[in-house]
């Protein structure tokens, strides 16, 4: 159901990746969909705010990073929680995978079963 809901939600045509597979896509732009399980903000050394978010899909958890410019545009959506799609670049540093978020939008909750 997620694949069918993403175009209607304004999501581009990047490959939909399961949270468990983010590491395999390091260096590439991908799309994920799931429930926001947790988020927190932190200051940068320059006094700006960035946001960390944990996305939960049926395969596991994916850590997402919203740098200050993206946080200013989209942080309120993350703070509300719920079902979302995210697009960005998959990165792996020191064995930990992160999705550096570029775009993000909401999804109706019933669309979360991966098909």
What's this entry about, in short?
The N and C termini lie close together (6 Å).
The sequence of SSEs as H and E is: HEEEHEE
The unreliable regions are: 111-115
What is the spatial order of strands in the main beta sheet?
A: 1-2-3-5-4
CATH architecture: Beta Barrel
Q: State the distance separating the first and last CA atoms.
A: 6 Å
Calculate Rg over CA atoms: 13 Å
CATH homologous superfamily identity: Nucleic acid-binding proteins
How much strand?
Answer: over 45%
| Shape designation | globular
Mean pLDDT across every amino acid position: 87
CATH topology (fold) name: OB fold (Dihydrolipoamide Acetyltransferase, E2P)
Number of strands: 5
Structural class: alpha+beta
Descriptive notes:
The chain is α+β, with helices and mostly antiparallel strands and 115 residues long. The protein contains two helices and five strands; from the N terminus they run H-E-E-E-H-E-E. It has a five-stranded mixed β-barrel with strand order 1-2-3-5-4. The relative contact order is 0.28.
């Amino acid at each position: 159901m997620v694949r069918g809901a993403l175009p209607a939600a304004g999501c581009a045509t990047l490959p939909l990746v399961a949270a468990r597979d983010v590491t395999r896509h390091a260096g590439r732009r991908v799309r994920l969909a799931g429930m926001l399980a947790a988020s927190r903000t932190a200051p940068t050394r320059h006094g700006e705010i960035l946001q960390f978010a944990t996305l939960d899909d049926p395969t596991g958890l994916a850590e997402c990073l919203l740098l200050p410019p993206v946080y200013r545009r989209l942080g309120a959506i993350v703070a509300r929680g719920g079902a979302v799609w995210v697009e960005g670049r998959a990165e792996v540093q020191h064995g930990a995978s992160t999705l550096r978020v570029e775009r993000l939008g909401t999804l109706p909750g019933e669309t979360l079963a991966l098909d």
